[in-house]
């Protein structure tokens, strides 16, 4: 084969056994004639190793050759260098992540496609290369698709650039079409016929048995090795156990998957004469690696595929059926050495129903990393990028969303608040984004490093980031899982890490897998320093740690440390010299000997995992049903955008179940699991997630304790409620609203705690203005709150939003103008001239007493109107008549309403009522002598005089008056309210016992407990007790106590008179000779019988009552005023006057009593024969009121003598009842109405304390009964129902 002179001393030979060797000249010519050439051929055709040499032969000298995997880049470079007879790193080199074996002399550089993509950032036209080979393009990885798209844009700018696309014979036309129908060269592989056998499983769970059965069948066929495709490591282990259990002769079982070490992978490629090998591999063996010696393939038809979930924003690894193309690739593995057999553990119909090709990675992955590189390289809007197959727009949005989450993209002002949309020039990077683009790691991990640098924790976070970028160094062999777990748990706490160095495996749990990674790193550094190389390897093996991955971890940490130094990420380092930091970064690190700032570390890691934050759902651990005791349900976490996940059981946080966590990975298998978890706080989330946080606020409210407007804040991160119900100041949210609420709530409504003098002065003025409204019963006098708000709003600076702000401002302002915020009455009252304050006095003078007056304007409330405070001590001294006149300001209205309460027939004489009311008040002003009357009486007199027709004051219906026109009395004891009401006499009755008690206690020198003769000295008519402000006045009097007579203090003069009369009567009787025996001797038998049948307990009791009445009658007969008997001398004179006539008077009363009781017995007997009903009830009540135990002494003259006539009238009524029941019913209705009215009128008085007018009203009712039911008997005075009603009205 001729060599190109430009190739120099390079050996460019082509193995004739390789199928591509036959097409060298054709490919060389196509490269010369076309910018793009597509070379299609199956694995084994030689295209990967021979194309770079063909390009050199075609005169190309700077060739970039990409591989999808690092292992392939390294091994292919080594193979090409061997074939060309050069050292690796010279004419042929390679570059993978963090490793570069190439120089300026390198003509062929193998690299991962990611490395070439990264070079675009600093070499936009790829001027370092004149030829680019994109190998294994059929895999359609993410990076390959972006390279193909970018090269399509680049080729017009680089007409000298040659691009060679290699692919298996899968959809090559798509690549040719992408580059304008580029020529395709088909290179046939060295293949033999492959027999396809379909052996579908009965059940999916029979997979391992199906593999074992297929291997047994193929093993019996003899020569050649067996390649079994499995979907994952667990399936490989299960299948290996099943095959080894078959104990097949001369058979070796080997696993092959990406996580195996290089040494374990190399075992597959080593010769094994005399032994049949069963290789259990993942889909890595489909195209990337050619396993030698394979004659048979077992294909279960499944593979674990990386697929991005648009719903949960999680990169999943589900097990899915492989495509037809992948199935054919698998079958083709056994046709290279000779005819092969491929057993498919599924049906042919299943095969035909599968998609023809595997979906490109760009259609099932997150595009964030490459979008970041594109943005850094300024490749324009992603929507305009020429993809081989444009990714789904939702995937593009998710990539942009992740970059926004990481704070890598600048916020477009036009789209702020909406989903991020890049501009026509493409997304623009922030400072953070530019740093991320220069970090050769996943953007999430890069974000952690950037944040760590800002927090001075870069060196602590760096090994954590490196660990998250590689497979886990901790191994968990299935046969020793418990032992491995126990050793790995040592790093779950600080104590555990310390015990690890001592060979112990215990310590308290720290629920942070992130901290566990750092402790493991620290432990490995210390062990590496203390142990030899072999001892360290043995330690790793014994503690289930993968030595090679640890080496990779260490290398990656070293490389990242250099990047951190070069990018100046360690911004908090004390030495600011960049060169010094770079030198420091390259220095090897030993065990730290310190504890990291875990808050800074976790915050830095959180910055890359904001969409992986979860809040514990408390309801998820509650038992769903009543069941037996058992394990508590595993806690679920509410994640971003509605996702729900649980912490993987192997995590340090699994049992702790922190309230808020972050997860490095969310992987969906049987459920969504969080792996590598650590607890975080809401404060940490708010620190690094401000750009993603949504804050919602409740309605603002005023906080008295805080002195500011506040609201409840709800903080959400991508739908996760980080903070719920936190109280925050509203001033930073909406200062205008906060200021308005401060003025309204604090200054206007008084909801604040202050000692400012201006405010106290303003409150006093406002109280005076509001009191004026209450007095005048007008709501149009005082300005509303809005006017007061405006007053303060005009004077207070705009930046004052809280009490604290105000205090600081006012502290200086008051020194200059202390009255700056003072309210004047003119500021509060609209028309001060329209209000007569004197018409609504503060006090009401009644006699010598000034009573406080208060006003309430609250229609419908019990306190509405005028209230007068009356001390219980002066309750007996106050005449209620003046209060009926009301205060001057309400007197016009009172007069008007009283006129309106008149019966219609009378009311029509006084229309319009307001005019007549004012005329009447004018008349009363001219007749001051009427001022002593109750106002209804005075008003009646005035109206009668003005109209010329007399008016009865009882016609006024005072109960119809509006409540506020009736004075309310508040009874106090000087300190507190005792009671209140509008009926003065009822209150007087209610509080009389209290007043009596106080009076008797205060005048104990006058009061006497009781005696049977005069032992009281001189009894004063009044007793005044000094009290402030009003003296307490009492009225001493004799009190009838039955067997004795005492002295007590009455609260009114009228009550004292009644007490004195009864007490004096009893004492005169006790001091006089008893004529009872003489009277008894002179009684006839009939009289004795009549007297014995009365209501008294016995005859002696009756005669004692007769004697008491006789004594009273004689005192009255001698015209002695009981109130004048105040000393023993006057008392003795009275006794002497009464003594001579006592027996005779007693005899006369006894005979009258006998007649009364005889008549009473007859009437009772007749009544008993009558039917029950209202009449019988009325007569029974009447008899009970006339004749009772003690009625003789209790009934004064002349009513005692007329009792017989009243009883006679009852007898006549009973006879007339039968004769004229209609008349009885008519008269009964009249008397019943009046009896009810009388009962209501006297109800306010104490029992036995009726005033004389009330007593006479009762006897007038008895006369009315005679007039109604026994008119023939005649009455003692003119009487009618109308007259009785008038008397009762006056009594009320």
TrEMBL record:
GO terms for molecular function: ATP binding; hydrolase activity; RNA binding; RNA helicase activity. Residues 28-188 form the Helicase ATP-binding domain. Pfam families: DEAD, DUF3418, HA2_C, Helicase_C, OB_NTP_bind. The keyword ATP-binding applies. Residues 214-378 form the Helicase C-terminal domain. InterPro entries: DEAD-box_helicase_OB_fold, DEAD/DEAH_box_helicase_dom, Helicase-assoc_dom, Helicase_ATP-bd, Helicase_C-like, HrpA_C, P-loop_NTPase, RNA_helicase_HrpA. Keywords: ATP-binding, Helicase, Hydrolase, Nucleotide-binding. This is ATP-dependent RNA helicase HrpA. It comes from Propioniciclava sinopodophylli. The lineage of its organism: Bacteria, Bacillati, Actinomycetota, Actinomycetes, Propionibacteriales.
